[in-house]
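Morning. Coffee machine broken again, so started the prediction first thing and wrote up yesterday's gels while waiting. Chain of 336 residues, entered below exactly as on the submission form.
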Amino acid sequence: MGILIVEFVTGGGEWLIGGESPFSDSLIREGRAMRDSVARLIAASSDDEVHVFSATKNREDDTSEVKKNFVSDASSFWSQLRRYAEAKRWAIILIAPEFDDWLLKLTRQIEVWHGILLTPDSTFVALCSDKTQTCLTLASAGLPTPETHGATPCSWVAKPRHGCGTEGLVLVPEGPRPTTSAFPRENWHVEPKIDGITASISVVGHGIHATLFPPFAQHFSDSMPWTYLGGSLLEDPNRIARAHQLARGVIQSFPDTRGYFGIDLILGRTESEDVILEVNPRITTSWVGLAASVGSQLAESMLSPHAVASTTVVPGTTPISFWADGRTIEASELPE
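Came back before lunch.
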């Protein structure tokens, strides 16, 4: 079995979207970091042949273990993807943003071609790509969200309903809830701004079972527009336990799936202040930190062809921090 890694932003997505420079610098930086970290770890942890899509002919970190497939236009993207999907000897790791439903479109197309996906299926992707529907699902399961914990008047966060990361996010000053004329519900998800430690926890699904990985604190720029800088392993045992508890709630309440997904949280001073922000149905930049912290355990969990008992992975003894561009350091805090 071979492994194909398709990272949309660096792997030819520009040809599908059209126009000049359709991606922000942060999307390009994080896309490249995820692609390269996934490729390196999979190649180092298995005997599988590893291929990646690339819209750039020359890549500084090309190695003999990873073959680059150049994508020159939309036609070559689709034709190559179909060839891999229909070959049946390639498993596909798909990394794409949720905006304009690109992650969902690509997932569904690979399913139509009966390709082998190592990332979440279209049912899971469709639910999690819609931030409003995600929060409604969480709340109906009795899980805490900003809507269930927010008070009015307060500050508000407006983000594209089908968005990715901090792209397009707007901070609305304290006051009554913003009107739907300013932020139409079909396009925007608006929620109270909750104070606390922004964190993420990564999960690899195996159908009815799942592997939980160590949670990371997320770091952002101080000023708007917020820019994701990277993360560092959480070290407070109490907050780690609370992050795991929230993640288990998501796993129990959402459809079973296979592959890596990330859960974004706010961890308050006490458990009563914790909330779940969203569920990212794809590999996130936290993979970079996890690869440095738990190594082959992450790759083995992704590649396991059979369902395994649910488990929680313990990080290494050295605190790890990482930048959004893929650099990692052995330190407990991310330098500015």
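The two ends are 42 Å apart (CA to CA). Going to sketch it on the whiteboard this afternoon.
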